[in-house]
Amino acid sequence: MLWVILRRLRDLVVVLFVVGTVLFFLLRSIPGDPATVLLGTKASPEQLERLRQDLGLTGPLYEQYLHWLGNVLTGDFGTSIKYNLPVLQMIFDNITPTLTLAVVSTVISFLLTVLIVTWVTVAPHNRVARLVSRAAQFGLALPEFWLALLAVYLFALTFGWFPPSGYTPLFADPATAITQLTLPVAVLVIGQTAFLTITMEESVLGELTQLYLRTARAKGVGERRIMLRHVLPNSMLPVLTSVGLNFASLIGGVVVIESIFVIPGLGTTLLGAVYARDFPLIQGGVMFIAFLFVLVNLLVDLAYALIDPKVRVS
Amino acid sequence: MDRTGQRRKTKIVALVALGLLLSACGTATKSPTTPAAQSGAGQGDPGQPVRGGNLTVRLAQDPGSLDTVQNSNAGTSYLGHEIFESLVAIDADYQPQPVLAESYKKSDDGLTYTFTLRKGIVFSDGSPLKASDVVASMRYWVDKGSYAGSLKPVLKDITAPDDGTAVFTLKAPFNLVALIAASHGSGIRKASDVAAAGATGIPQDHVIGTGPYKLKSWTAGQEIVLERNDKYQPPSGTSSGYAGAKGAYLDTITYKVVADRDAAFNGLQTGLFDVAEPSYDQYDQIKQNPNLKVGVEGAANIQYVALNHNSGSIFSKQEARDAMNMLVDKKAIMDSQGVPDLVLPSNGAFATQTNKAMYSEAGKAKWDQHDPERAKQLFAAAGLRPDQTIRMITTDEFPQFKDALVIIQDSLKKIGIKATIESYDFATLMGRKNNEPNSWDVLALMDDANPPVPSYSDNVQGMDNMGYPRDKLAPLLTAYNAAKTPEEQKQELDKIQAFTSENLPTLTLYNARSYVAYNPKVNGYDGWGLEFANVWLAR
């Protein structure tokens, strides 16, 4: 187990190095730079050049890269050009709303998925259970942005049950935070639950073909017990992988939801940074997402080992 | 398919249909027919102003910094006017009025301006305003900003002979007061704050001014909160534009960063925001909403297309620029916005009609020309080959730019000329314009339509190297700056406008006014951008 963790940590360093390096050169190869955004359309070429010099954007690219790399190795991810604040501070300030959305929606989706699939598995002939299960495919087909707009229109503007937008930290004012989070979380939960339900159902179908179930039935174990004690737990592994990947992609991918519901998360911040060509913030933000991605995958692997004794043994 | 499956599918379809029907019914009931909104700024403000309350304002972007010199973001300007004051500022008629200056004097030769500061002014942190602060702020404004670009070549020095006097000495006459008054970057800061400026300007923890409000808190990307500056000492005179005494009635002003236009509109409707500047396509809906008021701003932006004068473009030829002027149906482009209340013909002028000191109709006759057949002949005379394509570029961030280019593209097509439109984010657009000057022909943008000094915007890097008659413009600007009386200035201004219209560095399309939608409890709004120094909330 320790060896697995060490190997993953080594991979993490490689991933961060590659992501950071590729991004560094990619950002400097696209048209536009922070100076033009800051100074606007009327700036003279001399003013633009002077600001570029002040920002350290002139000189050979390899020198800029080595300077950046040296700083990163000492834990200095630089200062946001737009906000004039340390990049790490910007990331930590803006990750909380995104993490709140991701954690809450993932937990609810996971629990709903387990409930739905358990219900369908234990009561395969129940019409409502089947309907809910079929609805998963429908839920997967609905674009999140469309759902979000519909939710705002119906539940905020028409019925007035929830605010159309806004964000309050969960622990600062829980009541307000929950009303503000309800719609965005609900929209995310629909898509995630649909995806996880389909994944888990397929896993259950695969598990139902396993020979050990025949042995269990031959021993006289009841069908309900077989489903609850054997089929469902063994079907969880692919779901865990999906939950992990889904969670990691949410960290950088909920920008549309953040934008519609005006949630000041990392995705929105990074999008603004791209428009402003805020190179240090883009690099730091993307590397942080890559870091989380690898970390979540590591945690999923560790969870595998906890759930499945075969993985531990191997 | 078995019948059970069929029934299940029918149920799902019915549920979806119900949802869509519900949505459609909602749409129908959300279209009020009572036009109860008030148009025009400053109308219907009942009662006496009262102090207190918080005003929540939607801000489209976090400006990042409040360095009004180096940061061209609109939000920086909006907030800067609440926090900082200038020596002089424009009133609602765009005339300079003293604010921090008690008075100013121009020498007979026009080479020295002496500003006497009002006594007893203190910054919001309690430190007294000194002429050394003025000198530091003004030097920073000239050195780092683009607004004072035309002043820089003629500025000799800025000095402070004593704590209450600031002196500008010039190498040649220049309309200095007008420039300072109109620039949002000319606000006076503490000299120590100016000294704290880094590569990206003055940091957020050095935002101290003498204006009616001061910075209370700033959560990057989320909100900026201003609070009343109790040490604010208003100038004499009633409030007008950026000049005059401001009421500072509000306890706080909270600027919420909301990029999404629809989210801003929803926030207005549900009372999350008190004030917002919505988009043009939301104007009719807002006007029909009885719970919102509309204030059309007095100022406007000029929407224009820049014609590339570099040798790689057909528009380096005068005939091609004249052809474009003949071809473009400015009225059709203006009408395409669908908001007649908010658009005005530009008449080719580089200032709006409201800016009386800078507005000139000397180029109107040429601007009014519209003759596609003649345009076709002129394009041929300019040497446009049949296989040549006119390359138009713009940004997606302002939909009106692309609207205009689509109409121009259609006009070109009708006379047999191919044209392409490429749209980018702003940074990419600027990169393309500056770094690949021969890769485009037409660029759609907008500009502040209220220059304090004659504006001659070429917007194309390296134009002077192409034999463009900048040498003929310089004497005209010199004559304007040397004019002794407003009448003389007006005559010289007409000459500059005529010169601009003759050479067509840009082709103005129309003037676009912004508007503000606000909650009826907001009073005292005077149609002056997102400025709330005189706004109060009804109890």
From TrEMBL, chain A:
PANTHER family (UniProt xref): DIPEPTIDE TRANSPORT SYSTEM PERMEASE PROTEIN DPPB-RELATED
InterPro entries: BPD_transp_1_N (IPR045621), MetI-like (IPR000515), MetI-like_sf (IPR035906)
Pfam family, one: BPD_transp_1
GO cellular component, one term: plasma membrane
Bilayer topology: Multi-pass membrane protein
GO biological process, one term: transmembrane transport
Residues annotated as domain ABC transmembrane type-1: 95-304
Compartmental location: Cell membrane
Record field: transmembrane: 12-30, 99-124, 145-163, 183-205, 251-274, 286-307
Family: Belongs to the binding-protein-dependent transport system permease family.
Keywords assigned by UniProt, alphabetized: Cell membrane, Membrane, Transmembrane, Transmembrane helix, Transport
Xref: Gene3D superfamilies: MetI-like (1.10.3720.10)
Protein name (database record): Peptide ABC transporter permease
Superkingdom in the source lineage: Bacteria
From TrEMBL, chain B:
Cross-referenced InterPro entries: Peptide/Ni-bd, SBP_5, SBP_5_dom
Ribosomal protein keyword on record: no
Residues of the Solute-binding protein family domain: 95-448
First and last residue of the signal peptide: 1-30
Keywords: Signal
Region described as Disordered: spans on this chain: 29-54
Segments passing through the bilayer: none
UniProt-recorded Gene Ontology molecular function terms: peptide transmembrane transporter activity
GO cellular component, one term: ATP-binding cassette (ABC) transporter complex
GO biological process, one term: peptide transport
UniProt-listed PANTHER family: D,D-DIPEPTIDE-BINDING PERIPLASMIC PROTEIN DDPA-RELATED (PTHR30290:SF38), PERIPLASMIC BINDING COMPONENT OF ABC TRANSPORTER (PTHR30290)
Record-given protein name: ABC transporter substrate-binding protein
Record organism: Streptosporangium carneum
